[in-house]
Amino acid sequence: MKSTIYHKSFRILALTALLFSGQACKDILDEKVISNIGNDYINTPKGFEDASKAAYSSMRNFYGSERGLTMTEYGTDIYTTGADGSYKGFHFYDTQMNSFVDIIQQVWEELYRGINTCNAVIERAPAATVSDATKKLRVAEMKFLRAHYYFILVQQWGGVDLRLTETILPTKKTGRATEAEIYKAITTDLEAAITDLPTTKASAQSASDYGRATKSAAEHLLARVYLTKATSSAKATDDYAKAATYAQSVIANYGYKLLPDFASVFAQGSGEINDEVIFSVQYTSDPLTNVNTANLNNGEGNKLHLYFGMQYDVQPGMKRDIAGDRPFKRLRPTTYLTETVFKDRVNDSRYKKTFKDTWLSNNPGANLNTSFDNSKAKMTLKLGDTAIYIPGVEWTVAQRAAKPYQVLVPSAYTAALFPTLQKFLDPNRPDLTYEPGSRDYLAFRLAETYLILAEAQLKQGKTTEAAAALNVVRRRAAWPGKETAMELTPAQVDMEMIMQERARELAGEQTRWMDLKRWGNLVERVKLYNPDAAANVKDIHNLRPIPQTQIDRTENAGFKQNPGF
Fold first, then answer.
1. Where are the alpha helices (DSSP H) in 402-511?
2. What pLDDT digit, counting tens, does each position of 219-274 carry?
3. Does a structural domain hold residue 29?
4. Cα(first)–Cα(last) distance of the chain, in Å?
5. In this structure, are 182 and 219 located in the same domain?
6. What is the DSSP secondary structure assignment for residue 545, as one 8-state letter?
7. Running DSSP on this structure, what letter comes out for residue 9?
8. Rounded to an integer, what distance in angstroms lies between the CA atom of residue 223 and that of residue 154?
9. E strand residue ranges, 231-272
10. Overall number of domains in the chain
11. Which domain holds residue 72?
12. Do 540 and 107 form a contact (C-beta atoms < 8 A)?
């Protein structure tokens, strides 16, 4: 059982009367909201600690949430729209994506709420009655978080309002900094944070500190930042070299290692704290802390388990159960993902370990009418019999007819029936309809560090080194005995291979839209591989619309909307 501390909520009136809550871990302090705290509370030892914990809470608004998922995986080359759900404008790139969409406003405001908490802790640290060592450590954490929040903002919206001091009173004086100014602030914060953060790797942190920023987390983030900056308007000639240097440091200096089995990375419970996880966002299974307000306690829980599932629960022999999860069918994989990215299933285990392919009957019966499998009219199922199987390739009618269950082949996929991503399924939920999930969100893991390194090396013309980095990830993904067959030669390493490898390894992990933007081929690849979005996607969609509330609250129309919105 994972040990985690759940940080108390508290209210600082000086922080524009916003309620902040800390990042979850799991052991557990009592939960209560303390209101009407004086402006100097943050200067006390407990107030300073509460404020530093509270700064982590905005992570939950983005990672593991419907908001963050919508803005990172919808409308890409690997995921398209399922049958149901909201915010389809992010899939279709149509007029539903506009400056009035509530999740755009929510993400924007929560990121700035987190930034303001960081600013408060940093500015008030000199007056806090805590040791100099504690001040230095917490300020370093705040700089990591502030940089992280600004990195999300600049990727999604471009140049935004740059605030590096605490905002105590409401103001209409805002404006847009350049991307170069935002990236300078991000890299300055992270480079400063690295100096003072602990060298402890995540899995070795104490129960009270698990989930806090570390030196390796800051280096991983900085590697990702430089990789992204290299294709932005703020690019510099040494960005790729710096990305590679920081990635190499994470790999070499902290004791991280890839787990032997790809599937075990996503094991729920104690498996979430492991030698591959560099930084994670914490959630809890305590139902008392799961509330429907993103700023409180556990937020809304990690909800990614809801969105990738097909509609298994209305099929013959099936009904909804906790293990199968609650299928919102919001995202379904594109043909490109299932048939090109995951084409090799002989050597590479990741297709089998990424997608759920078998459903066992939990609602048995005789002479059940089939639904999608036209190779048979009826079937008889006993409890625990296979009811649905997805082979991932076409089967002949005769092959399907020989099976006593329905076989879902690619030609029969629909917006409601498709391979289900199983990384985030959450069988620990207390009942069938419960939405908040308790899985930690694995924000940074070592496999991505190797992928960052490979991309940065390829961009420097170092194909031999890039192949070596990719092969570390690919050998881990191999079926037993297929490790050599999974290895790439330097001649095989190009950007298409990098793009596919990131999709194979990171499908669904809230990176793809930002990857496509970084590569400068969002429009091209969506048009090629995502028929639902191809008609509407255009260059303006490399940025999101600025929330109308931000524009309306700025004096003298000083906050300009992104072009095309």
1. 446-459, 463-477, 483-486, 495-506
2. 999 999 999 999 999 999 999 999 999 999 999 999 999 999 999 999 887 668 99
3. no
4. 48
5. no
6. P
7. P
8. 16
9. none
10. 3
11. 44-197
12. no
